[in-house]
Design brief:
GO biological process, one term: electron transport chain
Keywords: 2Fe-2S, Iron, Iron-sulfur, Metal-binding
Number of helices: 4
Shape: globular
Strand order of the largest sheet: 1-8-4-5
Helix content: 10-25%
Structural class: alpha+beta
Protein name: BnaC01g44590D protein
Organism: Brassica napus (Rape)
InterPro entries: 2Fe-2S_ferredoxin-like_sf (IPR036010), 2Fe-2S_ferredoxin-type (IPR001041), Adrenodoxin-like (IPR001055), Beta-grasp_dom_sf (IPR012675)
Length: 115
């Protein structure tokens, strides 16, 4: 996890329409998702092959879709609350039709920090 200078985790709250990918919500909100080394080297543009968009879901995991087969493979040694933002759908896609918003999960960025 990334800690801010005061030692607190880098946690963000956002609202979104149901059915959106967590990756898209984070990028649209200018929330840093990729560490400095993963962006140019191995960002797969959201198809789930690089696993560089890994995040820890701190609260609200019941608002998200179950882990996909890609996540089950890429995250098999990670705790159940870790997800790939590109594979994680937020809320119920039916909410899009009526314009309602769902409060998305509290997400703690889990970018890798390299020395």
């Amino acid at each position: 996890s990334v800690l801010l200078p005061d030692g607190t985790p880098d946690v963000h709250w956002r609202r979104a329409c149901g059915g959106q990918k967590l990756r898209d919500i984070m990028l649209d909100s200018n929330i840093e998702l990729y560490g400095p080394y993963s962006k140019p080297l191995s960002n797969c543009a959201g198809v789930g092959t690089c696993a560089t968009c890994m995040v820890e879901i701190v609260n609200g995991k019941e608002l998200l879709n179950p882990r996909t087969d890609i996540e089950k493979e890429k995250l098999k040694r990670k705790p159940k609350n870790w997800r790939l933002a590109c594979q994680t759908n937020v809320g119920n896609p039916d909410f899009n039709r009526i314009g309602r918003h769902t409060t998305i999960a509290r997400v703690e960025s889990s970018r890798m920090e390299y020395p």
